[in-house]
Amino acid sequence: MRPSSWFSGSGPGVQTPDGCSVDLYREMPYFGELEELRPLLPSGATLLELGCGAGRLTRVLLAMGLEVTAVDNAPAMLEALPAQARAVQSDIETLALAARFDVALLASNLVNHPEPATRRAFLAAARRHLGPGGRLFVQRHDPAWLLGAAAGAESTVGPLTIRVEAVQRTPPRVAMTVRYDTPAGTWRHSFVAEALEEAQLEEELAAEGLARPTWIDRRRRWLSTMAETSGAADRSPAG
Among 41-45, 48-52, 200-204, 225-229, whose mean pLDDT is lowest? Predict the structure, then answer.
């Protein structure tokens, strides 16, 4: 499977290069995925949200009292952000801000990108933007779900119905098409993800100068890490 076919999307409105539909993300509700992080995100902290989309999580972070800088490479996504967030248009891999942050957030399973170099670039971008003592929170797909979800699996959250339409596995990679139905329309997102076991992810964190993580939730989908304090190469942005 070629990289050019890893991501695609369809449905009303604009689709971003990774197949995400802007109108869908404007409609999508909050699923509560930050609740287990809430005690670890102190009000007033500066937070860098990598891959913010249309601000579904941004709004929750702002309500927690955080100062949010929200990064996405799709202008149409950034247009949907609340005015209280600082919006930055950039690919995560090449992000080079002067500011350093108390917290960086790599949510939405972006770390499951099928290309190892891209995963590493995401982690490197987060690390180089952490201030002293800063923490990175990373969300991954549950590997058991990626490797076990069957076509036809369906869930409903409020007015949104999510259905797995197709799955093809060449472990550790999984190609999946997911259908989203709301009263406003129907969208599809096709993507390829790599199922990351704990040991593999910990190795990739270490390779980018990040400490051994603490797993936060029972399903071990969220981890917390920080920059190594010694023995790590300086990965500050050039210039």
Answer: 225-229
pLDDT at 4: 58
CA dist list (Å): 201 to 181, 208, 212, 230, 236: 33, 11, 10, 20, 22
Query: Does a structural domain hold residue 38?
Result: yes
**Cα–Cα dist 28/239, whole Å:** 39
In this structure, is residue 235 part of a structural domain?
no
pLDDT band for position 229 (cuts 50, 70, 90):
confident
pTM recorded for the entire structure: 0.93
Contact between residue 134 and residue 103 where contact means Cβ atoms under 8 Å apart: yes
Two structure tokens written together for 42: 């102190």
- Give the number of domains in the chain: 2
Q: Are residues 50 and 116 part of one domain? A: yes
Same domain membership, residue 134 and residue 35: yes
pLDDT above 90: residue 233: no
Question: Both 120 and 176 in a single domain?
Answer: no
